[in-house]
Amino acid sequence: MTGSPGEGWKIFADGDDPENVPLWKALAQYTSDDLDEGLKANAAVIDQAKPPFVRYYNLALVVSLGFGFLSVIFLIALLISVPSRSTDLFTALALGTLAATASPHLWRQVYQYGSRTPEAPLALPYAPDRPFDEVLGYLQKASGPRAYYLSRFGKRRVVLNRRQFFGRLRYFLFSEHSMDRAIVMRFRTGLPMPADIFLHRDDVEKMLVMSKPRRKGGPGRNTKYRYADAVIALIADNRLATLNLEDRAASVRALRNWLADWFETNADASGDVPRGDQLSPYAEKIFDHLRNQAALKNR
């Protein structure tokens, strides 16, 4: 990964809240070490799959709007009509057009998730893709990371049911464009997906760590990054005394950020620095060492 120092951290540092990583960014980082290349690869998969579903989505919207307009007219006519046979006619027409307004969305819901609660991912109506399926495999597990969106008011986290990722159009949830995500309906609600779906930064980093094959050590192997120098420099850092050793997650995150700061400050001409998932194991070891030292002093 090349570019300016810290380029590999843009996926985590972009936006108002670096703790919330958009799903489309997480997949792009999983697909490729280069974020832009990952986004292009994922967009190509989605663009190839979506044309027929975009056409039906637009048709369903037009049908719903048309029948919805008619239902309003018939409801108004029903309210102003005097009791007579016309009242029964307007009632039937209003109910019929209301049902026709909802029917395209009900059909979309059944198509995407089936007529019953899906117990396993449904068959895809388009060609499968390995990175999509691997990331979905994490999200579909009961013990996997929890995806969520932010409520419109108050920015409260609303956790998605893992069965949201069982639907036939689940690939579209990884699109960078909100119009693509709107094609997918929220599981059980019949509402379109909101503007963005997120994973917590820590969950993304764990997923990236699990996706990378472990390299075997051995004589003659050159280490790409100067991890030893970074750890030694951090040992003498006065900020270590400010860590809350009772909060592992926050302390590991702080240590990882301090290591990243060192690599950015001491980057070579290429500007290449390790990613967050590559620094996490070192941050965890430093934290464990500090906590063990503190426990020995308290005995």
Task: Give an overview of the whole structure.
The protein is mainly alpha-helical and 299 residues long. The protein contains eleven helices and four strands; from the N terminus they run αβαααααββαβαααα. It starts with 9 loop residues before the first helix and ends with a helix. The relative contact order is 0.12. The model is unreliable at 1-16 and 214-223 (pLDDT under 50).
Which terms would index this structure?
two-stranded antiparallel ribbon, 299 residues, mainly alpha, 4% strand, disordered N terminus, elongated, 11 helices, two-stranded antiparallel sheet, 54% helix, single chain
Write the layout of secondary structure elements.
Layout: H1 10-13, E1 20-22, H2 23-31, H3 35-49, H4 51-80, H5 85-113, H6 130-140, E2 148-150, E3 157-159, H7 178-181, E4 198-200, H8 201-211, H9 227-235, H10 248-265, H11 276-297
Antiparallel strand pairs: 1-4, 2-3
Helix pairs in contact: 2-3, 4-5, 8-11, 9-10, 10-11
